[in-house]
From TrEMBL:
Organism annotation: Eubacterium uniforme
Superkingdom per UniProt: Bacteria
Enzymatic reactions: L-threonyl-[protein] + ATP = O-phospho-L-threonyl-[protein] + ADP + H(+); L-seryl-[protein] + ATP = O-phospho-L-seryl-[protein] + ADP + H(+)
Region of interest (Disordered), ranges: 602-690
Enzyme Commission code(s) on record: 2.7.11.1
Positions with a binding annotation for ATP: K41
Domain PASTA: 389-460, 461-526, 527-597
Descriptive protein name: non-specific serine/threonine protein kinase
Lineage of the organism: Bacteria, Bacillati, Bacillota, Clostridia, Eubacteriales
């Protein structure tokens, strides 16, 4: 295992290991040449000297490097450094589809179909480049935090232009998703990927894989011999179009599946628009029957292949979550070879099918004859006899009715009618209304012994919790607490003075209730934001018109311009700058400057006197206004001593109180002094000229 800080090819710095597979480890690394984070798959040292492993490892790189599509993990580089073979890939922040299914139980129909479309589009890009993936499964499908679906791990893919019916260098994918032709070492083409995608779609819809077993051999044989379980029984609300799409993808004979994946994509998209329309065209079943007989040689081949790929599940390190990409999952899965193939397989199937068909026919004839005899019906071929399926059941067996969605009493009545007992359990359910049956222990339409108890689970409705507060907690602790509430958590990042990976915000407050599957977004700290700085240029003495150019060249901009008079600095020259020259300032910040208006002009003595007289005349006009037209102010009244000038007009009424009158006279005298009026005794208001 590579240590943190190790450099590969003097370019890629290893940060941490994020995954481990059959023959390679996956690391998060930093490319110092392009300054970005990447994922590097490094061949394990134990295998780097094995030419076959090295060739297989290079084959993955060659297969994936030529692909460029939004639904495929990009491969950036491939190389070798002192015996260390590596592939540089796109680093995806997200989780695998397998983890997503395990978290949600089963996906909604719309979500399942939408994911299948994106996966199919990625596969289509590979098929257009003559590449078969050969290992389509939820572990090799990554869902990014933005909801983008990407196919990864072309570890066992190889160009279809090679001799694909030669098994010597072939490889097998995870046995739960393997196509029948892969399991028995047959010819592999694009339809093998379509089969595996159909199994993946089944798992998304049902929340489980179609075939389980004690060993990989058992599971592989089921892929060859058995039809997939009735999806309608597992997902009662599945539309007929989606059910038929899954059924067509998972046909045992490759030529009965979708022949090209673009046809599958078209049907998937149509099912989103008209889900209940019966538009999927299924291939006509031939006369060779459906039962398949496996030869001893083929079973031997399956055992060899399965032994090399037991479980085939990647081991992923949880690692330290001290990085914003801590939930990044780069899964890889390497698988070994099948040793042999039996080219006589199709002939064996045909012969075996005919034999089994004859046996079944004889059995049915005997069974029908006995039934007709018991009911006193003439067995003559001249009589028309219709035998219903139910009539083949004896008195000890019965069919299990479907009671999902019924009330407790309705379910009990229906089960009792079929001779079955009832037991009750209670559980939370996100989709079934409280009080209705959400589960039953025996699948509908299966044959069971009469009088057994069928356990039905009554819904308690959605489970509701109080939202918890995770602000201030580290990302790992917060995720554990939120996932314990079965919430769908999205992690975002933002700059903050808080410690890296500390939760600084959450989308839901503690005052709200949350249910299983609710979306919650938490924001974690990236740490303090780093801002690039620049050196402030010297601006003092520069012309104002040149300042903007100088600042722009330094990555700064002009701020406020303050203008002042100066006896020493010429007009329009910079006197001072408020950001010191030579100091460091953030890029894009503003710099304020002080600019000279030049010397302030001082008026001469004559100009000052003329200005004062002009101001006095203006003041006099404002105080006197227009003089009365019926009074010649050039002639003074005989009873008035005009040596003592009167108060100006508009002075207002004189107060009647003597004290107030004295105060008013004093105020008038003060006004005279202020306004340059001659001082004297002013007549009372009654003596003013009219």
């Amino acid at each position: 295992m590579l240590k943190s800080g190790t450099f590969i090819s003097d370019r890629y710095e290893i940060l941490e290991r994020v995954g481990s597979g059959g023959m390679a480890d996956v690391y998060k690394a930093k490319c110092h040449k392009l300054n970005r984070f990447v994922a590097i798959k490094v061949l394990k040292q134990d295998y780097s000297e094995d030419k076959s492993f090295v060739a297989k490892f290079k084959n993955e790189a060659q297969s994936a490097a030529g692909l460029s599509h939004p639904n495929i993990v990009n491969v950036y580089d491939v190389g070798e450094d002192n015996g260390l073979y590596y592939i540089v890939m796109e680093l995806i922040e997200g989780i695998t589809l397998k983890q997503y299914i395990e978290r949600k139980g089963r996906l909604t129909i719309k979500e399942s179909v939408s994911i299948a479309i994106q996966v199919a589009q990625g596969i289509e890009a590979a098929h257009n480049n003559h590449i078969i993936h050969r290992d389509i499964k939820p572990q090799n499908i990554i869902i990014s935090k933005e909801g983008k679906v990407k196919v990864t791990d072309f570890g066992i893919a190889r160009a279809t232009t090679a001799n694909t019916n030669t098994i010597n260098s072939n490889a097998v994918g995870s046995v739960h998703y393997i196509s029948p032709e892969q399991a028995r070492g047959g010819y592999i083409d694009e339809k093998s990927d379509i089969y595996s995608l159909g199994i993946t779609l089944f798992e998304m819809l049902a929340g489980r894989v179609p075939f389980e077993g004690d060993s990989t051999v058992t599971i592989a044989l089921q892929h060859i011999q058995n039809d997939i379980p009735n999806l309608k029984a597992l997902v009662p609300d599945i539309p007929i179009s989606v059910e038929k799409i899954v059924y067509k993808c998972t046909q045992k004979k490759a030529d009965r599946r979708y022949l090209k994946i673009n046809s599958l994509i078209a049907d998937l998209k149509r099912s989103l628009v008209t889900p209940d329309e019966d538009f999927v065209v299924l291939s006509t079943v031939g006369n060779d029957g459906t039962t398949i007989v496996i030869s001893d040689d083929e079973i031997s081949t399956i055992k060899k292949a399965s032994a090399l790929t037991d479980d085939d599940i990647d081991t992923i390190q949880s690692g330290d979550t001290n990085d914003e990409l801590s939930k990044t999952q780069i899964l890889e899965n390497e698988n070994d070879d099948i040793d042999a193939v039996n080219p006589k397989f199709d002939k064996i199937i045909a012969v075996g099918s005919i034999a089994v068909g004859i046996i079944i026919l004889i059995f049915l004839i005997v069974l029908v004859s006995k039934i007709m005899k018991n009911f006193g019906i003439n067995t003559s071929m001249n009589n028309s006899v219709t035998v219903k399926t139910e009539e083949t059941l004896d008195d000890m067996h019965t069919y299990v009715p479907n009671v999902i969605g019924l009330t407790e009493n309705e379910a009990m009545e229906k089960l009792n009618e079929n001779g079955l007992g009832v037991a009750y359990e209670y559980d939370f359910d996100e989709t079934i209304e409280k009080g209705l049956v959400c589960k039953q222990s025996e699948l509908a339409d299966t044959v069971v012994e009469k009088h057994i108890q069928v356990v039905i689970t009554l819904s308690k409705g959605p489970e509701v919790h109080d939202m918890i507060d995770v602000v201030g907690q580290d990302l790992t602790t917060a995720m554990q607490k939120l996932e314990a509430l079965e919430l769908n958590v999205t992690v975002e990042y933002d700059f903050s003075p808080s410690e890296v990976n500390k939760v600084i915000a959450q989308s839901k407050s503690t005052r709200v209730d949350v249910r299983k599957g609710d979306e919650v977004t938490i924001t974690c700290s990236r740490g303090p934001e780093y801002k690039a700085t620049t050196t402030v240029p010297s601006l003092v003495g520069a012309k104002q018109k040149d300042v903007s150019g100088k600042l722009s060249g330094a990555g700064l901009k002009l701020g406020k311009v303050i203008e002042v008079y100066s006896d020493t600095v010429k007009k329009d020259r910079v006197i001072a700058q408020l950001a010191k020259s030579g100091s460091q300032q953030p890029l894009g910040s503003s710099v304020d400057i002080v600019v000279s208006l030049g010397k302030k002009e001082i008026p001469t003595e004559t100009e000052t006197q003329e200005q004062t007289e002009t101001q006095q005349e203006s003041q006099s006009d404002q105080n006197w206004g227009e003089q009365p037209s019926d009074q010649n102010w050039g002639e003074q009244p005989s009873d008035q001593n005009w040596g003592e000038q009167t108060t100006p007009p508009n002075q207002g009424e004189q107060p009647s109180d003597p004290n107030q009158q004295d105060q008013q006279n004093q105020q008038n005298q003060q006004n005279q002094q202020n306004q340059g009026w001659p001082q004297g005794n002013w007549p009372q208001q009654g003596n003013w000229p009219h």
